[in-house]
Structures are given as C-alpha cells and as structure tokens.
Amino acid sequence: MTFVQLLNSFFDRSVSAFLTQIRPFGAIAAIVVCVGLILGAAPVQASKLSGGDRLIARQPSTEVRVSLGNGSDALKFFPDQFQFVAGKRYKLVLNNPSPQKHYFTAKDFADSIWTQKVEAGKVEVKGAIHELELKPGAEAEWIFVPMKPGTYSLRCTIPGHAEAGMVGTITITSDSQQA
Ligand SMILES: [Cu+2]
User: Fold this and answer.
1) How many A from CA of 95 to the centre of ligand 1?
2) SS3 83
3) In this structure, which of 32, 86, 107, 177 has its CB flanked by the most CB atoms within 10 Å?
4) How far is the centre of ligand 1, averaged over its atoms, from the C-alpha of 142 (Å)?
C-alpha cells in the first residue's frame, strides 16, 4: 500500500466515522462536504467545523500567495518565508510577474506534504510534485496538506538565481504547536 493510498483510506474512514456520528444530519453533512469540495476556498477555519481535521482532504483551503520575482526583475520570492500547519489544507497560488522564468523548488518540503493537485491553466496534475517552473506571466495553484513538521529550504534552480537571493524558508509546524 502506498503512502497516498494509506492517507486516502484514513480520510475515507474518518469521513464515514464523522458522518455516522452525525447520522441525523447525514444528508446536510454530505451537502456541506460536497460544497467544500467544489468551492475549496471558503475562508472558514476547518478547526471550527464539527469533525475538524477528520475532513482533512475536503476541508476549505487557506490561500497563500507567492510571487516568483517581480516587475523590476528582482531575484527574490515574495514572500520568502512560509509557515504551514500540519493537517490543514492549503492552496498556494504562485505567479510570475517578472520578465524571465523561475522555478519554485522545495524537494524536502514536497516530500513532507500530501499533494492533492496542482492546477495550471486548464491542466490539473495529480501525484508527487517537487518543482514548478513558471514562465513570465504564468500562474499555478498547488493544493496540498502539510504532513511532516520541519524547516525546509526553497530555491529557484535557474543558475545564479539562488546565489543572488532567490531562496526562502518553509516551515511546517505541528497542530499541537499552535496556540
Ligand atoms: Cu529564478
């Protein structure tokens, strides 16, 4: 059984356990789950929903934005520090407003999350993602759930860019470290 299959079975079990607990409201809960799936980005904290983290793969996502470079061609990520909480669902919206292409490369971070999908244009990519290349003007959305707490490095792998400062830090904290 692969890691993702394991996760999926965990999610499925948790959701059915959740639905069983609130059986009288089962139909309503199912609708809420579907709306969550479709909208994905409602600004509701999952921890405030009944069932909380058990709805991990279906909970509303928290949107975080990052720009790779800027209009005056600075070799930087904006922002360059990120903090995510394990078990929450995020939508990282990446864009490249600069005149040249850049990479968002964070291999150890990518190994520490469960990627639900990456969407770019009309294409949706599922499975493990380690690096995203964004051409000038490109935008992509990376939807994931952080799994393993730690501090991970981010860099652009175009020669010279990381050396010029196109680096960053991504931190995953565990749920219990949150106040
Ligand atoms: Cu770059």
Assistant:
1) 12
2) strand
3) 86
4) 18
Which residues fall within 8 angstroms of residue 50, CB to CB, at 6 or more apart? 18, 22
- Please give the order of strands across the beta sheet that includes 81-85: 81-85, 167-173, 150-155, 102-105, 131-134
- The full set of domain ranges for the chain reads 3-55, 62-177
Convert the pLDDT of each residue in 58-70 to its tens digit: 789 999 999 999 9
pTM: 0.68
Please give all residues whose CB falls under 5 A of ion ligand 1, grouped by chain where several chains appear: 102, 156, 158, 161, 166
Which tens digits make up the pLDDT trace of 85-117?
Answer: 999 999 999 999 999 999 999 999 999 999 999
Superfamily of structural domain 62-177: Cupredoxins -  blue copper proteins (2.60.40.420)
Q: Which residues pair with 146 in a beta bridge?
A: 113
